[in-house]
## 1
Amino acid sequence: MSDRLKPLIGLAATRALTRAEAEVAFDALFEGEATPAQMGGFLMALRAFRLDALPEEPWRNGGGRTRTIATRMRDADAAGSAAQDEGPPWDWRISVATIERGGPFSSFPGVDRSSMLLDAGRIELSAAGEPTLLMQSPGDVVRYRGDSVTTSAVHGASQPLSVLNVMTRRSAAQAWMKALRDDSYLAAQGLALLVLEGSWRVVDGSMGAEDPDHGLTLHSGEGAWCTVSAPGSRAIWRVERLSPTGMLAAIELDRS
């Protein structure tokens, strides 16, 4: 086990390493000091969160609120060209929106969007020239383009409805979102989870860990996300349902 690498794994889970810290970490990796578990921990810095602890941002039109879970910004070179392609300054963004009343969403040219209904109720999404999309049960997912102005209509709910959203800049990344009810493997360059019901355990699927003392346990309203820092590598998570029933929102992200 590398004494040099151990404290850096914890730092990498909360912030970007400085150049000096990164040099120490890579020296430890390439000189063979790190155990396989430490290599996985460094390359896949996992960030856990509680949804209700994330700050809320009110919509400008007053129709709802957003909690941002994670954002991957463009690198320095790509960010310099953002004004030329009129795209956003990020490659992808994951958030939960609470819709208090129906109305138009903001348009995002060059962006693909996916939304998952989290509460009991029904939401219809419509845009000029596009088919109407319907989410009517928790876990339902729809995909649509951010280029058009999409309008939401809320039905059958006595309180605001929450929706998990992932947006990807079309030329930079693509995303797949699904609701899981049983154990599963996930593999991508970026992964995100949000527990909708029950309790789940997340382990590094590349290590084949079966020890119940390993991994991260998440309960309803909690989640985790990561990105892989090594080019060409993918994170592999095994998610295990610990409760008799449960539902987990899972997002896999890859560069285009």
Note: The helical segments are 6-12, 19-30, 36-43, 76-80, 82-85.
## 2
Amino acid sequence: MTTGVYFCRLQTQDETHVKKMIYSGGTFSLSAPSLTISPLKNEREQKKTATPITASTYKCQITNTNATSPKIIDKELNGIQVAQDTSLNVLVYANYFPIHLVNEWIYQTTYFDPWLGHDSTITDTVIITNVKRLNGREYYRFNDRFGFSFFGNDLFIAGLDTVYIRQNEKGDIVFLAADTEWVYLRFDAALKDSFVVTQVRNTKHSFDIASFNDTVNTPVGLFENCCDMWTEFPDWVDNDEFDYFAPGYGPVKFVYGESGGTIRLIGIKILN
């Protein structure tokens, strides 16, 4: 195989894009395309003349760039057999909830205070502060033992204050409870408009994805292509909410179903 410019097709949900890939020998390094790049159709680029390299097995890394929108889950492919004119078709997933040490979200909650007779606000900061490694995987915890409202509390999930979370290769949120994994949230386009029930220990948790193209305006900025997800603990009353996840940024807004109270993002620090 010669060094030069090749093309790789990336697919995420209902988007398909073609990206140029420069091969200089040894390892592929590929940056995920932004959604502004148009797919290439029946176009070819002349390969650069170079010394031929023997076909072999390589590693392909797909990562975000500053221009990538929406952000994706980084992916590494090992054992890729590459020969002359090899095509790589890779499926990648949007990252609706980036999990990384020191990621930080600051929220402001607005609610009606019956004692004061008017709306009041509370500011809360959620930071990923701890990491735990088990069986080659990394799991994380927050400064607040519950992290986010859609995780419930220890009345809903027994021992929630000991639970760690991780993000799998599809971007799903997975709980680790007593060294057992439980899939908690899934951001799968195939689940849109489907009522899904998951379980953590003996507690049921349900969600329904309404959209992947919502726009949410916050004091931090405008977030597009958000996942609008309704969540609830069905065995308890008055706890449903609408959660909005922005790709590359995570939860940016919450609206409580019964009370209509709103939690808005007012500050954020994300390490992708």
Note: The chain has two domains: 4-91, 104-269.
## 3
Amino acid sequence: MPSYQYINSTGVIIPDTSDTLEQVQNDFIAVLGENLSLNPSTPQGVMISSITNLIDFIYNNNALVANQINPFLSQGFFLRSLGSLTQTPYIGATYTTAILSLQGMPNSIVPEGILVSNQTGDIFKSLYQVTLDDSGNGSTTIQALDIGAITSPAGTITNIIEGAVGLETVTNAADALAGSDTESDYAYRQRRIDQIASNAYYNINAFASNLFLVSGVVGVQTLKNDTDESVIEANVLLLPHSVYACVDGGSDIDVATVALIAKGDGVNMNNGGGINKSIQITDPYSAVPYTVLFDRPNPIDILVKVYVTDNGASVDYQDEITNDILNYANGSLFSQYGLRGLTAGVSVSVFQLAQAIQIQSPRIFINLIQITLASSISYSTDEIVLNVFEKANLDSSSIQVIVG
């Protein structure tokens, strides 16, 4: 077998098949003589092709394994193992749960495991045995049989599939707590990047990573000034020795609590051009109150035109493309594709919008996408660059689909 050096200063490399073929042919000639016919239709030609394909498979397999040490290229179990080294736990799929209200004969026993369903046919089972009270009322927790995100608004889980003697009606008074789908490699890889510095403190990367850990946070933009003078950075005035954060998502209290700890002692904080927040947080150890400053992103209205070719598909182009773009914009594609969406400070790109449409609706042929600020309408394919304290705002009325 030809020798092969898999790794050089540029990383893992794979030889061209033509080079492998030439090496195998030379090996056959060296053994069987220079008059050997290399025609692929000859017995030796078939053997040479087969050996070349086998060697190529080995090369590719070895390169794939070698790439598993690189968190930007690794997959599956290998990627999760690398993430665990930096304390970034993998998020597996979870079940949807709900509180189910029960009504029936007073003092009836409703055992664990009754089966109910919602109006779309999703089936749930009860997790606990319950005895109805003297008025015939009770409640229990139910869990979906299928793992993943299931939407079930209040009042939709009403069908009894396998009940109990004395149980007459059921319903969920509140919306079900939707589970989550398995985190994709794309999403996990990006989340690891976002949170990798969360084990540290007192630097700007750790500041951002810790903010990303706050429940509900989907976007973070941070700035720092480590000089003795006030400076303007990215259109934000920064006090001496200070940090700035624009945070999209999460509660004000949660964000402020983490920001106070992660910013570092003696570090000032700033408001900028976003929606200013000033939150009082009391230090749990000293009982001293501190004022934490940060911004929420200002919404910037964006308009989109999408030109598509009618290829005869049975589809409502306006509705489908609108949903595709809004799914991308609100971050719904993150868990599967790692596309964070239009959050704080993220520019609007026609290429990203086209990608979002293609991965969700590959049968749609896009001719052109144009975008513009709603405040100054001038459609083009140019990227719309936003400030760190701004966030693109889109709704169904912002998107126009032209079918040609």
Note: The mean pLDDT is 91.
## 4
Amino acid sequence: MASNKVKFKTTEKNPYRYKAFRKELTKANKTTLDFGFFEEDKYPDGTQVAAVAAYNEFGTDNAPQRSFIRSVIDANRLKYLKLEEKLVAKIGKQSLSKLYDKLGEEIKKDVEAALVNFSSPGNADSTVEAKGEDNPLEDTGLLKDSLKFKVKKGIL
């Protein structure tokens, strides 16, 4: 089982590592990684991409649930925790923003793959006819292209 302890070593080469570690740890208490679809992303008709993502993720009265975010997070939870553990060990050597960027990129890569490879439940026959294909989560590519993460500092 992984330890929650953060190990660091002050050496003659870098006697100030502890100070850098404490500084980054203080920032960590005020930093968040927001992931998903944001208000500024819209389809040409003005529909927010976040709304379309939510309809697919949770389903509607007319469309089945097609979870592509929660399912990825659930399936990769241990992987992300292990990555976070490795990144936390680097606090003081790298900025917290860079560490969050690495975690965000990994999650984004996994969710993008899920979007592209999603197949079940498939589209209704009428949707397949209109789109010309049966990839339920791909049409214009805007959903995938709008997926992003933001590191926010000083929130708490």
Note: Strands lie at 31-36, 148-153.
